[in-house]
Design a protein that fits this description.
Length: 112
């Protein structure tokens, strides 16, 4: 996989990866993200469920998007950048887990 990523970065292409956090060590995920951040024009578009990746140390607010699924089945995509009251020195992971950006599952106990 790394050979493909290096090829994408060298040729300023876009790399799509669903579930980047699924089979890779967290340090390797951060390393890959930083490779793309240091490139000239290559782009990495990925999905993840690991909230540790919500970190402003290696991602800007305009690079983070959330997907919120509504009761009617439609999905809404929006950027962290849209939250003007959120500052770069805030803890993005903590704010997300508190539901500040929505896009978290609402769990209820089923009647069993």
């Amino acid at each position: 996989m790394m050979l493909g990523i290096i090829n994408v970065i060298r040729n300023d292409r876009t790399f799509l990866m669903d579930g980047i956090d699924t089979n890779l060590h967290p340090h390797l995920v951060e390393y890959i993200i930083n490779l793309f951040n240091g490139s000239n024009h290559a782009q990495l578009i990925y999905t993840a469920h690991n909230t540790h990746l919500l970190n402003t140390d290696f991602q800007r607010r305009d690079q983070v998007y959330f997907v919120n699924k509504h009761d009617d089945g439609c999905s809404e995509l929006y950027s962290l950048y849209d939250f003007k009251d959120f500052r770069d020195n805030y803890d993005m992971e903590k704010a997300y887990l508190q539901g500040r950006f929505d896009a978290i599952p609402y769990l209820t106990t089923p009647n069993i």
